[in-house]
Design goal:
Layout (H helix, E strand, L loop, with lengths): L1 H11 L2 H34 L10 E4 L2 E3 L2 E3 L2 E3 L1 H43 L16 H51 L1
Antiparallel strand pairs: 1-4, 2-3
Helix pairs in contact: 2-3, 3-4
Amino acid sequence: MKFIDEFKNFAFKGNVIDMAVGIVVGGAFSAIVNALVTYIIMPLISYGTAGLDFTDMKIVLRPAAVVDGVEVAECAIGYGQVIQSIIYFLLVSLALFIVLKIIFNFRSKVNAAAGAAATALKKPAPASAAPLQPQTSPEQAQAAADQAALDAASKAASIEAREANIELLLSEIRDLLKNQSNNQSANNS
């Protein structure tokens, strides 16, 4: 029973679900990039190179022929497909780089805003308690905001870890109580 509970915790916590969503979205994204390469980029390259189609580019090792009444298929190295696959890979890499750059920029702005909000919520010390502090530079303010964001993230991770430990302890206590109840039932019988 414990194995099934551990599997449920693993499968439904979020990591597996996030991964599954990523795979589905990645497949859809791959179809978009494939269509972009096949129907837009490669025709433009073909147009720019006077009608050269990369998919037909090959080195023929043995041409198709009829030998003693039997058709022998052509044997060729299709390097045009490799060129098209390289272009596809470069476009996917570029698109992912741009998307991740946008996400990371957005995330850093959100973290900076959260840090600034956390700093703004702190109460200033009374004037008699401490001497006046010089104004902070933008770099110091950014460092303080980054530190506040890190502190908030570590507190959230700590809370999640505590909750996971509590759930584990509760499931172990439940199992112990079940075993004890079963043992008492067996002894009474």
